[in-house]
Amino acid sequence: MANIFPRWSNLLPLKIAFCAATAAAGVALAFTYYATPKTLVVGYQPAQPIPFSHKIHVDQIGVDCRYCHSFAEVSGFSNVPTGSTCWNCHQHVQPTSPKLAPLHKSMDPAYPGYDGKPLEWVRVHKLPDYVYFNHSAHVNRGVSCQSCHGNVNTMEVIFQDQPLSMSWCLDCHRAPENFLRPLEEVYNFGYNAETYLANNPQPGVKTPRELGLKLKEQFKVYSKESCTTCHR
């Protein structure tokens, strides 16, 4: 009886398996390189309606984080400032700057083109919808803005400094003493634990780690590592 399939078909399963393995390896490599928090979000720096400089406002002028982000320590999420927050100062400070045209258009009825529409800031730091995170619970237990957002005080344009990934969060939850500060230092971007201890001696505390352990006990920080901590 004649063969139904030609001889070359004997290699067909091997060819299919090779192509499938190659495609799977390519998908895995692409996912590893591109679909990780580091490549997706670290360095993310979208254009904003107004070129707001944190370096000028925080580092040079000394505006406290909570003036603009007023929900930071009282709410589960931190807010971006409304136009009225900016208008409090800028109706008097550099009122003719062309960079502030969107603010005038939003807040000043006498401004040509006034429409009263709110400023549409582009959100930079965003966790997935399935992740529960309480902002006030962290800052009220000694976790600084700097730990999660980087040196915001030196940023001309805000960008995402940390990956905010699950493993990154767990690094802190497993050893919170390495990140805790006295509450009065949470918003201080120039904080140094050794300098703080030199100026504020603590009984039985000589190193930054010992300070962190003391704060952990003082604040009753029992950070969890289970899935249900963030995935509820």
Report on this structure.
Helix 5 packs across helix 6 (101-107). This protein has eleven helices and no strands. The mean pLDDT is 91. It is flat and about 95 Å long. The chain has two domains: 54-81 and 123-229, no CATH class; 82-120, no CATH class. The N and C termini lie far apart (65 Å). The protein is mainly alpha-helical and 232 residues long. 39% of the residues lie in helices and 0% in strands. The chain has helices spanning 12-34, 37-40, 54-60, 65-68, 83-90, 101-107, 135-139, 145-149, 166-174, 193-199, 208-218.
Provide the number of structural domains: 2
- Which residue ranges are poorly predicted, with pLDDT under 50 across at least 5 consecutive positions? none
**Structural class from helices and strands?**
mainly alpha
Largest sheet: none
Question: Which shape, going by the Cα principal axes?
Answer: flat
Instruction: Quote the average pLDDT.
Output: 91
Number of strands: 0
- How much helix is in the residues? 25-40%
Q: Span between N and C termini?
A: 65 Å
Tally of individual helices: 11
Order of helices and strands: HHHHHHHHHHH
**What is Rg?**
26 Å
Strand residue percentage: under 5%
